[in-house]
Amino acid sequence: MLWWLRELLACFRFLSITGHDSFWRSKRVYELVLPASFATLGLVLFELQHALFADDFLSKLSGSLFQFMVFVVPFHLAALAAVATFARGGLDEQLKGVAAQLKVWSNADNSFSFQTLTLRQYTCLLFGYLCSIGIAFILVYVISTGINFALLLGSWSDRITSITVFALLFFLAHYGTLSIYAITFLFDKVNGIDPP
Q1: What DSSP line would sit under the chain, residue for residue?
Q2: What is the model's pTM?
Q3: What are 43-57's pLDDT values in tens digits?
């Protein structure tokens, strides 16, 4: 992989964090299960009860998500900066009560190994991921607003509309769930650190 692409995609390392818990007790529930359930339910309602939705539902949903991202990405960026630079010893200790590991390459051993993350590393990866996907959404939205998709897609337009509705609902639920998780995680873990 190209070095610059690997650097740009480093923000997605949060998704590869694993632990010892089962799938249903892991962060995968926040990342995948809840968002997929929400998006599937929304898409079924959109397909079966189309009259419940405005004619320009897709443009309103994407526009509202854009405004939400413009508001919330700076918050996550500030949280990332605060956690990354906050001088508190407990932040550099391993997470308590959970095993968060990241698969990393070791040049010395010429192999992969699992690194147990500290509270600071885990939190920085979480907020960095949220910032990155928020910025990616903003860029995709800005670029896509100038494209005539009806002309470009032709007869595929209806099918792509359904896929787009699912993708937007999944993104909304994914981002929202992980944002709530990040806030409660900070309250639970950071405030639980004993002062020195």
Answers
A1: --HHHHHHGGGGGGGG-B-SS-GGGSTHIIIIIHHHHHHHHHHHHHHH-GGGS-TTHHHHHHHHHHHHHHHHHHHHHHHHHHHHH---GGGGSBPSSS--EEEEEETTTTEEEEEEPBHHHHHHHHHHHHHHHHHHHHHHHHHHTT--HHHHHGGGHHHHHHHHHHHHHHHHHHHHHHHHHHHHHIIIIITTSPP-
A2: 0.88
A3: 999 999 988 888 889
To 5 degrees, how large is the angle CA 137–CA 138–CA 143?
Answer: 100
CA atoms within 13 A on the CB side of 12: 7
In contact, 115 and 104? CB cutoff 8 Å: yes
